[in-house]
């Protein structure tokens, strides 16, 4: 855009409209500029002004005209069709792009050269430092995972921090930007903050040194009473309702509201923080805390549901807050649960009660960790049969709030995966070894500071075997369903592994399930300088996600041999048919367990409090009208439909196989 100096007539018109400038020669305007939409404005420094012609309607149907009214403007570039009104103190050192609305703002300024929150170190997990994550606009959960947990690879850490710092240098400026279509309304102080496209900021109390990333497809919202310092928020995020954040990264689709308080924490895709507080946490995707008395501190979580009053301690009153905890994906904490760090909780576990003995249940996923008479008891595998576990797994993809075409976090949602099944396989070995070491007549067994009763141990082995059969069979049946074959040789070719890639150990990189060998290769590539930018790093993570199903099958093939005795290179058709039957039985058995678990929600005990002014018939009628009939409940119908669907699938595959027998 080309600018020109003001004419004498334009200067006179501006002065008549109540505007002032010590040196009008420092003001440049669009060639077709009109001064009529500028009133009561004090200019200083170098200011450029575009065309101010657009008319628009504000909420409530109030007609308005773009322009600058009742403001102090210093050293700004103001693009076309901007509306600025009632800047009480000053608007300084900003490039304000097209169609921006700024109304009733106390102060909006850049006070010094700044990187707008980029490069800030966030002390996650350990409050005293050692696992710092460097924030930047394109930070993904997976990059943060490497920064926090791969401290044994110092060259990698140096490279990752350098990438963050290089990114920060690239955006460092003494001039801020308010991108096209952003709205800033009824705000107090905004200092050294860069604002993205179509962001909506209203009623904030104080924002200092940060970036509000946003997009047309997925605008961000910063709402009333928010105080934020040293922060970055991603597109589609919301921070509102008097929440307070300091040294925080807020990921895509994340909502922090209802007076939530967080410091030195990172929140990735689709987290929710209401009422409670967070300190030095790594909140992987779908970490959820909804309760006023809930504290998350010095922990790593993902797909977590934190109950009311859930709490952790990260020091034992000796060397200070140096301890950390890991709660693996998909876990829940019940009301008033407590964990003394250090501790490690296995994937998809339920934590109930208070636990002071630093449990480590990582190799026993899908478990209940329960307090009984001040002791920690573990029931391995029982969460596999919980209707709540399946309900959670199905709702996560449906609750993905991200609409931006560029997703920073590459999430694999699968409940059963090589990651969780490898833990079940290891879990069976752990339980069998416990039994053989302590003797088959023991009433309970000690494992990593928790007690496992004899009956719970036997049930855990059974549940894990069912889960393993279900997952391995899922992969095999899907291959057979999609393949075309007319003889055994063609069948063997159809189920052959694509490669050996992914056949080893798997890890969960904050929501991304991936073979460890791929992570190691990526780490090597970063250390050698093959991966040079943050963008390239994120592309690799997306590639990992895209390859998930191929790599998962490569992992399944050798486990079919070791766990089920099926060698895909030489298996007979009859063996495959037998295993399909075994798979169907495992699926149906698990579904029937979940069906019975769901039925507990409809027992007479569950009806307590219903039919408040009547007898049993009234209570049952009231319960039915509020909760619905058991057989028509969506979760129950889902189970019944799943049984029918998988049974039909088994019949279809068995029919295909019988034709080549």
From TrEMBL:
<dbReference type="InterPro" id="IPR032533">
    <property type="entry name" value="DUF4954"/>
</dbReference>
<protein>
    <submittedName>
        <fullName>Uncharacterized protein DUF4954</fullName>
    </submittedName>
</protein>
<dbReference type="Pfam" id="PF16314">
    <property type="entry name" value="DUF4954"/>
</dbReference>
<dbReference type="InterPro" id="IPR049208">
    <property type="entry name" value="DUF6819"/>
</dbReference>
<dbReference type="Pfam" id="PF20683">
    <property type="entry name" value="DUF6819"/>
</dbReference>
<feature type="domain" description="DUF6819">
    <location>
        <begin position="488"/>
        <end position="657"/>
    </location>
</feature>
<feature type="domain" description="DUF4954">
    <location>
        <begin position="3"/>
        <end position="435"/>
    </location>
</feature>
<dbReference type="InterPro" id="IPR011004">
    <property type="entry name" value="Trimer_LpxA-like_sf"/>
</dbReference>
């Amino acid at each position: 855009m080309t600018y020109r100096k003001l004419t004498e007539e334009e200067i006179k018109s501006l002065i008549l409209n109540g505007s002032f400038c010590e040196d009008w020669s420092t003001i440049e305007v669009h060639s077709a500029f009109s001064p009529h939409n500028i009133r009561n404005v004090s200019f200083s420094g170098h200011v450029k002004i575009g065309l101010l012609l657009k008319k628009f309607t504000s909420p409530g149907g109030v007609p308005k005209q773009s322009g600058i009214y009742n403001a102090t403007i210093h050293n700004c570039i103001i693009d076309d069709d901007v509306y600025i009104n009632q800047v009480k103190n000053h608007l300084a050192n900003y490039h304000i792009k097209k169609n921006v609305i700024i109304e009733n703002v106390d102060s909006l300024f850049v006070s010094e050269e700044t990187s707008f929150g980029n490069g800030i170190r966030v002390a996650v997990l350990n409050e005293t430092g050692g696992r710092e994550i460097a924030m930047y606009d394109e930070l993904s959960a997976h990059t943060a995972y490497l920064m926090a947990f791969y401290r044994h690879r110092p060259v990698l850490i140096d490279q990752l921090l350098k990438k963050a710092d290089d990114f920060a240098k690239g955006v460092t400026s003494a001039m801020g930007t308010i991108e096209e279509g952003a709205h800033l309304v009824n705000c107090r102080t905004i200092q050294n903050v860069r604002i993205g496209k179509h962001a909506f900021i209203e009623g904030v109390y104080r924002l200092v040194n940060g970036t509000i990333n946003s997009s047309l497809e997925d605008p961000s919202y910063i709402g009333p009473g928010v105080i934020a310092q040293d922060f970055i928020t991603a597109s589609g995020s919301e921070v509102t309702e008097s929440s307070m954040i300091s040294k925080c990264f807020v990921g895509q689709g994340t909502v922090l509201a209802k007076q939530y308080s967080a410091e030195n924490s990172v929140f990735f895709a689709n987290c929710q923080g209401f009422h409670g507080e967070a300190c030095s946490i790594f909140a992987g995707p779908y970490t959820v805390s909804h309760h006023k008395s809930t504290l998350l501190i010095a922990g790593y979580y993902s797909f977590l549901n934190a109950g009311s009053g859930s709490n952790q301690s990260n020091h034992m009153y000796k060397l200070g807050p140096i301890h950390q905890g890991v709660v693996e994906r998909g876990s829940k904490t019940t009301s008033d649960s407590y964990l003394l760090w250090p501790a490690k909780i296995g994937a998809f576990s339920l934590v109930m009660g208070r636990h002071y003995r630093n449990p480590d249940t990582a190799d026993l996923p899908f478990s209940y960790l329960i307090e009984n008479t001040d002791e920690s008891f573990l029931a391995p595998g029982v969460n596999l049969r919980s209707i709540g576990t399946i309900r959670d797994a199905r709702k996560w993809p449906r609750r993905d709030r991200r609409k931006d075409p560029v997703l920073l976090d590459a999430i694999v949602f699968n409940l059963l995966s090589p990651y969780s099944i490898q833990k079940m396989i290891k879990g069976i070995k752990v339980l069998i070894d416990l039994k053989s070491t302590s003797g088959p007549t023991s009433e309970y067994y000690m494992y990593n500071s928790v007690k496992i009763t004899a009956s719970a141990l036997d049930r855990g082995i059974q549940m894990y075997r069912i889960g393993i059969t279900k997952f391995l069979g899922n992969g095999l049946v899907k291959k057979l369903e999609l393949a075309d074959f007319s003889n055994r040789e063609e069948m063997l070719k159809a189920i052959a592994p694509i490669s050996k890639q992914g056949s080893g150990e798997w890890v969960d990189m904050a929501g991304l399930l991936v073979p460890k060998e791929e992570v190691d290769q990526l780490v090597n590539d970063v250390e050698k300088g093959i991966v040079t930018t943050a963008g390239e790093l994120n592309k690799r993570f997306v590639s990992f996600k895209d390859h998930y199903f191929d790599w998962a099958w490569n992992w399944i093939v050798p486990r079919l041999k070791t766990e089920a005795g099926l060698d895909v290179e030489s298996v007979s058709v009859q063996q495959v048919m037998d295993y399909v039957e075994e798979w169907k039985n495992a699926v149906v058995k698990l579904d029937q367990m979940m069906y019975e678990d769901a039925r507990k929600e409809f027992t007479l005990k569950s009806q307590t409090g219903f039919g408040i002014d009547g007898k049993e018939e009234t209570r049952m009628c009231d319960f039915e009208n509020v909760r619905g009939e058991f057989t028509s409940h969506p979760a129950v119908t889902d189970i019944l439909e799943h049984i029918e669907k998988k049974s039909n699938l088994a019949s279809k595959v068995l029919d295909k196989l019988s034709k080549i027998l």
